[in-house]
Amino acid sequence: xxxxxxxxxxxxxxxxxxQAYQPLEVYLSGISAEVAGKTAADLPYTIWQLIDHMRFTxxxxxxxxxxPGYVEPNWPDDYWPKEKSPKSQQALDECIKDLKEGMQEMxxxxxxxxxxxxxxxxxxxxxxxxREAMLVAEHNAYHLGxxxxxxxxxxxxxx
Length: 159
Description:
Layout: H1 3-16, H2 24-28, H3 33-36, H4 47-66, H5 89-111, H6 129-153
Helix pairs in contact: 1-5, 1-6, 4-5, 4-6
């Protein structure tokens, strides 16, 4: 197997999780809209805000990775939902579904040999697909850890 394919396979494993931390599906499974909108003492965000932030950021990174006409959203206003809770269970479920589908799209980009992992995007400032895939994995790991802690603090996580 060539080194490029080895790297792609390792990136996929990193994106999927399950090596140093549980996969995204484990942390997001069974969350109710009620719990997603609750706050914990001294924390400025809710589970809903973290999930929607992850979804938005992932789709922003996907857009940047595929679109030469990319326009950067406003930071931080566009990246974080203002609402503390989802409008409904359906809204939460759709957000989680969209996040999972976005992850599958990032994995497809990484697996596709037609996409050079190392070549800088012409519309960026040195970023490439390798960097963007690692950024997604790092960003998700950080926020999934926050979600797990919040679920524990809210009594919604079995140890």
